[in-house]
Amino acid sequence: MTSEDVVGERTSESAVSTIVNLAEEAKLASEGVKAPSHAALLSIAKSLVAGGVAGGVSRTAVAPLERLKILLQVQNPHSIKYNGTVQGLKYIWRTEGFRGLFKGNGTNCARIVPNSAVKFFSYEEASKGILWFYRQQTGNEDAQLTPLLRLGAGACAGIIAMSATYPMDLVRGRLTVQTEKSPRHYRGIFHALSTVFREEGPRALYKGWLPSVIGVIPYVGLNFAVYESLKEWLIKTRPFGLVQDSELSVTTRLACGAAAGTVGQTVAYPLDVVRRRMQMVGWKNAASVVTGDGKSKAALEYTGMVDTFRKTVRHEGFGALYKGLVPNSVKVVPSIAIAFVTYEVVKDVLGVEMRISD
Predict the structure, then answer these.
(1) Residue 5 within any structural domain of the chain
(2) Of 47, 82, 124, 239, whose CB neighbour count within 10 A is largest?
(3) What CATH code is carried by the domain that includes residue 270?
(4) Where are Solcar repeat segments found (predicted)?
(5) pLDDT for res 282
(6) CA atoms within 13 Å, Cβ hemisphere of 22
(7) Cα separation of 6 and 13, whole Å?
(8) pLDDT tens digits, 53-75
(9) Mean pLDDT over all residues of the chain?
(10) What range defines the domain where residue 284 resides?
């Protein structure tokens, strides 16, 4: 046997040995990953369930105020029916009964349950990714998320969740607005989706998407950032004896959620009005009214986000961008608070160790 044969044989043996070692390492790695992967999938499922329950419970609790807010946002300025929160709720009760207060809530829950599930889960995942990147950049393995980074994670979560369920939000708005006198009647979620798709085209299902994306950044971002930052501050400082240990009471967490909801919705509200008005465009004669002289007068038509802003302010004043803010404030404060607390409580019940603040 020549020296070349010996070298070749040794090289061959070395290559085979390397391949065997790699195969064994891969096998061990895969065996080690199997159990955690099932646990991780279960944890993801529980997180999604907790988020869905949180969304459904919080929105149903404030459904009458949600409907009144939308009616105030889109009502024709030539025919004012709703002049405020109390008067508006009484008018709905008188003209449509108890069921009228919850009109569109089924569609809202069908949208908000997956939306909330995706939003909370996306926030957790975005927070992990941003925190890992932040620690890599700073070289500090003990670094924690800052309020600004939480704002970014919340914005990512809001955009993902809103985009995934936006067509449901559009038809929910139309189902909520329609009354017995509306020329066009949608019989339900799927009928509304198919009708809009057939009569107005697939792009119509995303009318108002751009202001929604812009609005969701401060809204959802601030919700998460304010909520978690307040919790962290309370745990660290323990002001007025509110916190005796690292666990916050349900009442304290509700207060944190209420503060978060107030800040977020106030900043983003004008974009919500614009989005809702854009969603009504294309709904034939839905906004037409009969004025005092018996003539039909249609509401304004909008061609885009900027056009909607401009026409709303020009014809109705700057205050029109905050139409429905009062019932929305009354709605959002408990809604956001209930959503955050329900999410964490359900995760505790399901045995998920990680919370959003972790």
Answers:
(1) no
(2) 47
(3) 1.50.40.10
(4) 42-129, 145-233, 248-349
(5) 64
(6) 6
(7) 10
(8) 888 888 888 888 888 887 887 77
(9) 76
(10) 10-350
